[in-house]
Amino acid sequence: MFPLWLQAGLWGLLTGAALIIGAAAGYFLRLPQRLVAGVMSFGSGVLISALSFDLMDEAYKSGGFDSTSIGFISGAAVYTIANVILSKAGAKHRKRSGDQQKSEKDKKGSGMAIAVGSLLDGIPESIVIGVSMIKGGVVSMVAVIAIFLSNIPEGLSSATGMKKAGRSAVYIFSLWIILAIVLAIASLSGFVVFDHFSDDVIAATTAVAAGAILAMLSDTMMPEAFEVAHNYAGLITVLGFLCAFILSKIAE
Predict the structure, then answer these.
(1) How far apart are CA 139 and CA 41, in angstroms?
(2) At 155, is the pLDDT very low, low, confident or very high (cuts 50, 70, 90)?
(3) CA–CA dist 163, 8 (Å, integer)
(4) 160, 31 in Cβ contact below 8 A?
């Protein structure tokens, strides 16, 4: 059996690998933009359910309303401020599958901004995976499955947009491979760094991640989902939510 810190890293690597799978599908397959948007809708529903019934519920049980509320708002605020800065640098449409993404020619430095923005989107989710293993040494399979399922459409949509913006396959896949490795490190760090902290700190950290994830959904995934698949996006989002909800109840 692997040591717990290594297990945490491997779970993070697994969820990060979903980004590579999605990116490969987006780059090599000619998928209709409506289908891409539908997958984004499903992924949004999955994450909303996971942060509602897994992250926030666990944070409340561990730290109560104060730690959970402060962490939740702080996570959303920090993500929003960072996202505003990166958007101005050219990463505003990093998860869009259409022609919205700017090329390096259109906006100098946009490639680096997109890379940093992708890290910003993925790190909170990965930290949660590591933190979930602190009590009992068992990972939250609901969180892992939800993040894995949501990462596929993220990688798919973003890679499709990057290709349309003229970015090379080397750039696109190097970005996602590096990101998967960084997410593994973030998950490992979530376990190692917070292992000896109090329940209140762990609760606040989990809530911070939940707040950042919800802000990310509102700012990046949902615009892509609803702009293209608006007639069906709501229903598909509900289906994603229901799938994750069922998983959470089965895991109890």
Answers:
(1) 26
(2) confident
(3) 32
(4) yes
pLDDT in tens, 132-149: 888 777 888 888 888 888
**What is the 3-state secondary structure of the chain?**
CCCHHHHHHHHHHHHHHHHHHHHHHHHHCCCCHHHHHHHHHHHHHHHHHHHHHHHHHHHHHHHHHHHHHHHHHHHHHHHHHHHHHHHHHHHCCCCCCCCCCCCCCCCCCHHHHHHHHHHHHHHHHHHHHHHHCCCCCCCCHHHHHHHHHHHHHHHHHHHHHHHHCCCCHHHHHHHHHHHHHHHHHHHHHHHHHHCCCCHHHHHHHHHHHHHHHHHHHHHHHHHHHHHHCCCCHHHHHHHHHHHHHHHHHHCC
Give me 65's structure tokens.
């309303």
Per-residue pLDDT band for 103 (boundaries 50, 70, 90) equals low
- The residue type found at 187 is S
What's the rounded Cα separation, in Å, for the pair 103 and 110? 7
> Please, which residues have CB within 8 angstroms of residue 195's CB and are 6 or more apart in sequence?
134
pLDDT confidence of residue 194:
87
Reported as a pLDDT band with limits 50, 70 and 90, residue 118 is confident
Average pLDDT over residues 82-108: 67
Neighbours of 164 (CB within 10 A): 16
